[in-house]
Structure formats: C-alpha cells, structure tokens
Amino acid sequence: MTKNAGCTADKVKAMGTDGPVSGLSDEIVLICRAVDELTIDGSLEDETLTAMMKAYDVITVRKLILMISWFNLLSRFLNGCRVQLESGDRIGHRTSPV
Predict the structure, then answer these.
(1) CA 98 remoteness from chain centre
(2) Domain for residue 90, yes or no?
(3) Is residue 3 part of a domain?
(4) In 1-98, which ranges are E strands?
C-alpha cells in the first residue's frame, strides 16, 4: 500500500524501523508515533493527541485514529484466523485491494 501512497523505499525503511521514527517530515513522524502508541499501548499519549489536534482539525484526527485502529483490527483478526499471506502471483500490479 505504501507504493500506492507514493512512498519511496527510503521512507518505508525509515517508517519500519524499531523505535521512534526520525529523518522524515514532522507530519509523518507524528503519524508514526500515533501508530506505534495505538498498536503497542492501545491508546495515545496526551502529548501525541495534543500534537495531532494542533496539526489537524478534529474530524481529521478522528479519521486518522480510526484508520490506525482499523488496520490493527484487521491484522489481528487475520493473524488470529491464521489467514495465509498473499502469494506472489497476484492479479494485476496493484499492491492494495482499493
């Protein structure tokens, strides 16, 4: 999905590192921090939520939290059901079902 969003290989590598993301725009670092907190802790730190509320309007913040939560739910559901990873023989060239 990162390819569809226009992310370079360097951005994907930076976002996929263990620990806090650095070396990218403040916006990406903030979103990655929110992803890490929601994924690992199940909630956002007050500082992270405050930073998001300063950067975006309340509707956008809610949508971002919903998207992060959705992908956490989806991956945990698929892992819990033991759904196999996709094979390399995909139909077409897209990397996302959307």
Answers:
(1) 16
(2) no
(3) no
(4) none
Domain span at 35: 25-80
17-57 confidence digits (pLDDT tens): 787 888 888 998 999 999 999 999 999 999 999 999 999 99
What letter does residue 86 receive in the DSSP assignment?
P
pLDDT value for 92: 62
Whether 89 shows a pLDDT value over 80: the answer reads no
Token look-up 């976002």 returns 15
Q: pLDDT at position 19, please?
A: 78
Instruction: Identify which of 32, 39, 35 has the alpha carbon closest to the alpha carbon of residue 14.
Output: 32
Dmax over CA atoms of the chain, in Å, equals 44
CA dihedral of 51, 3, 43, 60, whole degrees rounded to 10: 50
| Residue 19 belongs to a domain | no
Total domains, the chain: 1
DSSP 41: T
